[in-house]
Amino acid sequence: MSGPAVEATATAPTSSGEGEATSDKGLGAGRLGLIGSIVIGVSTIAPAYTLSGALGPTAAAVGEQLPAIFLVGFIPMLLVAVGYRQLNSAMPDAGTTFTWVSRAFGPWVGWMGGWGLLAATVLVLSNLAGIAVDFFYLMLSQVTGNPAIADLTRNVAVNVATCLAFMAIACWVSYRSVETTKIVQYVLVAFQVVVLLWFSVAAFTHVADGSAFAGLAIDPQWFDPFAVDSFSSFAAGVSLSVFIYWGWDVVLTLNEETKGSAVTPGKSATWTMFVIVILYMAVGLAVLAFSGVGTTGLGLGNPDIQGNVFAALAGPVMGPMAILMSFAVLASSAASLQSTIVSPARTMLAMGHYGALPKTYARINPRFQSPGYATVASAVIASVFYAIMRVLSEDVLWDTITALGIMVCFYYGATALACVWFFRKEWRNPRALLTKIVAPGIGGVLLLVFFVQTSVDSMDPAYGSGSHIGGIGLVFVIGIGILALGGVVMVFQWLRRPGFFRGESITRGTSTDAGSPGTLVS
């Protein structure tokens, strides 16, 4: 590419040959509104699936301060979301973290930010598929009354084959454009939210009539984060809390396909966060009051139920309607599996568009105006990763999800600080100082502190499943190892495609610099 470097800002929608509006990357423009974006955001977070797997480990880390940690984890997420909103207003681009960090800190840091997002989404895609498999066979066993069917998930061949089938279906729906995604998500999200609220009301009813396992009254101390016994426990709890909120940024990767691309995605992210924190607090308080944090029976501290809290509690709480919870977690994981593909596909699309990856990743399906090649690539990579990890060990697979928190803190933190640096010359404006510098700055620093603390703690072989390599915890090896692998891949791309790394497609600068639209690098 010759001529002056250009900035990474999205152009206004243009008309395709078929008369439909498209973004500068060829995506279908204006296909999502505010409500549709919020639904997809909630779907990606997958509250039913996430709570089922996170309630136990979080309670084990922080005890009765579970609600406090949910609120503390929400604060840096909200502050970071403020930064995302400001960056999106200035540069509505499907590449989000990759594009924005490249703009603020240069192509090398931007590439690693994009890698962090890609790695996190691939890890969670593999786990979502695995959870969907578990609950699919559990649901079949409950419907048929045959407990043996639930054991099919332990058969590696059956498990992997079913997982690949789910991944293929999710890929097909995402391939057919964001409109198809939206329609599927309305149904699946509504169902899981209704069941979670039903579960919460039923749990509080048991507490009120004295039939709950623990039957605890809500205690103000539950909301005191300073009651957690150590900073390591606090950091572990917040890291898990970050994981349960992770996924809201998918609405930003859809900015070029959203009505009002500079404004609506930011609003959607904020509303998604508030919907989720209210839902989490309702369910968290209900479960804590019903079960307590004891290490036996239905207590949240019991390691036998921590991996799947709802599987243990649905029967005692919901009685004969417990099967609805199995349906809800299956719907939640399946919905998130499908909507989560949206994020890595569009990040790969942007990286191909700006020359940071092969230009084949920038291919758009002309019929559906979706990133067809990148969508299929995301599904294939996640499927291969799951198959390999599942064959090696189920512990390895679960440790990858624990390592997810490391990568999420890394790329969220980097994006938040990119907001601070990009808007730094606007500090004299009081509103800009608060929303573009102070809020995202605090959020970014907090997440990077948690990133460092969790990385250090995860070196302990006892962290996560207890597996280790050479005396170093497997969670650390996976989390930091995958980030290091990103550095290797980045160097390879630099050797193959030096133009991006020379700043030929995305110019480093600030919000006060004049700019022009980003262009495809050939």
The portion of residues assigned to helices is 55-70%
Q: Provide a count of the helices.
A: 19
CATH topology: Amino acid/polyamine transporter I
SSE class: mainly alpha
Which sequence of SSEs, written as H and E, runs from N to C?
EEHHHHHHHHHHHHHHHHHEEHH
Q: What coarse outline follows from CA principal-axis ratios?
A: globular
**Rg result:** 22 Å
Number of domains: 1
Concise synopsis of the structure shown:
This protein has 522 residues and is mostly helical. The chain contains 19 helices and four strands.
Task: Describe the protein.
The chain is mostly helical and 522 residues long. The protein is 67% helix and 2% strand. The radius of gyration is 22 Å and the shape is globular. It has helices at 34-45, 47-62, 66-90, 97-105, 107-144, 156-175, 178-209, 231-245, 250-253, 264-291, 303-306, 309-318, 323-340, 342-353, 372-392, 394-422, 430-457, 474-496, 498-501, and strands spanning 14-15, 21-22, 468-469, 472-473. It has a two-stranded antiparallel ribbon. The N and C termini lie close together (7 Å). The chain has one domain (14-424, 432-501): Up-down Bundle (Amino acid/polyamine transporter I), CATH 1.20.1740.10. A hairpin with a 2-residue loop joins strand 3 (468-469) and strand 4.
Question: What's the arrangement of secondary structure elements?
Answer:
Layout: E1 14-15, E2 21-22, H1 34-45, H2 47-62, H3 66-90, H4 97-105, H5 107-144, H6 156-175, H7 178-209, H8 231-245, H9 250-253, H10 264-291, H11 303-306, H12 309-318, H13 323-340, H14 342-353, H15 372-392, H16 394-422, H17 430-457, E3 468-469, E4 472-473, H18 474-496, H19 498-501
Antiparallel strand pairs: 1-2, 3-4
Helix pairs in contact: 1-7, 1-10, 1-13, 2-8, 2-13, 3-8, 3-10, 3-16, 3-17, 4-5, 4-16, 5-6, 5-13, 5-14, 5-15, 5-16, 5-18, 6-13, 6-15, 7-10, 7-13, 8-16, 8-17, 14-15, 16-17, 16-18
